[in-house]
Specification:
The protein is α+β, with helices and mostly antiparallel strands. It has one domain: Jelly Rolls (Sandwich). The chain is about 20% helix and about 15% strand. The strands form 2 sheets. It has a 7-stranded antiparallel β-sheet. It is globular. The N and C termini lie far apart (about 65 Å). Bound molecules: 2-oxoglutaric acid. 2-oxoglutaric acid binds next to strand 9 and strand 10.
Length: about 325
């Protein structure tokens, strides 16, 4: 069952445990909501004007060329893309940076991942009229399945987005992997059944399975909620963007976090606008990946507490 929206954090955590998703109403209100909306729309318009816009969810959008390679214009309007995606929002406004440090993120993402999680992707998905359903997926499709000791199994780097039969019908006796990813969906406009509200299948986070791309399930629910709501869903939950059939653009900011031993989807450390560095809090620097975790992500000494945008490198010495 899809949990009802709640401002009670204890209930929200129970919802996350039981359903894999919770919704908190009224997280962004008044000026904060208006500022984030305006910033997103302005950024989106300018990225489009400068032909920097990234588009997906088009019904006729052909992504691969005749040799099976991603086409250079795959994610463009001219190739039939409709929904507009914006990436690396950390560089695109204080309102977006504030989301990464929001106290509800500490509480609810921390509930799933523990205290030292990092930012994987900070993106927006503006679902537009005509945008198709994205299709159900999980955000930790790359997680190796538990295996029978000594048995042959798919090698971790060979895992692909197209799930293997083991991932679609796992052996429940082997147990399942924990959530190592968790998402925050900031609804900057009303999410409705018609404008592409995120689809979820509550409870699937405990199945240990990836959805079968060739099979429909009738257990799909949509995250229908007013502007300003925040949905948190964990990385094992089956979900995807809904179809946009009517209404205004659906403005969603999707902030994905992962445990610090995993690779970030966007390279936050490389991509961060260097001019922002002096103004960043230690909390945000850590979330971006500038603080090694148990010496992973370091350069030289395992005891260095931070890495820096322009590090002192020890080069070939003689
Ligand atoms: O935009 C949404 O509603 C969900 C997007 C999503 O699932 C994704 O980008 O992986």
């Amino acid at each position: 069952m899809l949990p009802i929206a709640t401002a009670d954090l204890k209930q929200a955590k129970r919802d996350l445990d039981q359903s894999g998703v919770c919704v908190i109403p009224g997280v962004l209100t008044g000026k904060a909501l208006m500022t984030a909306r305006r910033r997103l729309v302005e950024q989106a318009e300018e990225e489009e004007r400068q032909c920097l816009d990234f588009r997906d969810a088009g019904s006729d959008q052909k992504l691969l060329d005749d040799f099976g390679q991603i086409k250079s214009d795959a994610f463009s309007k001219t190739n039939g893309g409709i929904n507009q995606r914006l990436w690396m929002l950390v560089n695109k406004g204080q309102c977006f940076r504030d989301m990464v440090e929001h106290p509800l993120i500490d509480e609810l993402i921390g509930h799933v991942l523990g205290d030292r999680f990092i930012l994987s992707t900070h993106s927006a998905n503006i679902a537009k009229r005509g945008g198709q359903r994205m299709g159900l997926h999980t955000d930790q499709w790359w997680m190796p399945q538990p295996v029978v000791p000594g048995s042959d199994h798919i090698r971790p780097s060979d895992i692909s987005r197209i799930p293997s039969s083991d991932a679609i019908t796992p052996n429940p006796q082997l147990g399942i992997a924990p959530a190592v990813v968790a998402n925050a969906m900031w609804m900057l406009s009303d999410f409705t059944a018609e404008n592409g509200a995120t689809e979820v299948v509550p409870g699937t986070h405990l199945s240990g399975a990836q959805p079968n791309p060739n099979e429909e399930t009738d257990a799909v629910e949509q995250l229908i909620a007013p502007a300003g709501s925040l949905a948190i869903f964990e990385g094992r939950l089956w979900h995807g963007t809904g179809a946009h059939t009517a209404g205004e653009d659906r403005l969603g900011v999707l902030t994905t976090f992962c445990a610090p031993q995993f690779r970030q989807q966007e390279n936050q450390v490389l991509g961060l606008d260097r001019n922002l560095w002096p103004s960043l809090s230690d909390k945000l620097k850590e979330r971006l990946g500038f603080k090694p975790w148990n010496a992973y992500g370091r350069l030289e000494s395992p005891s260095d507490p931070w890495v820096y945008p322009e590090p002192a490198r020890i080069l070939e010495l003689s």
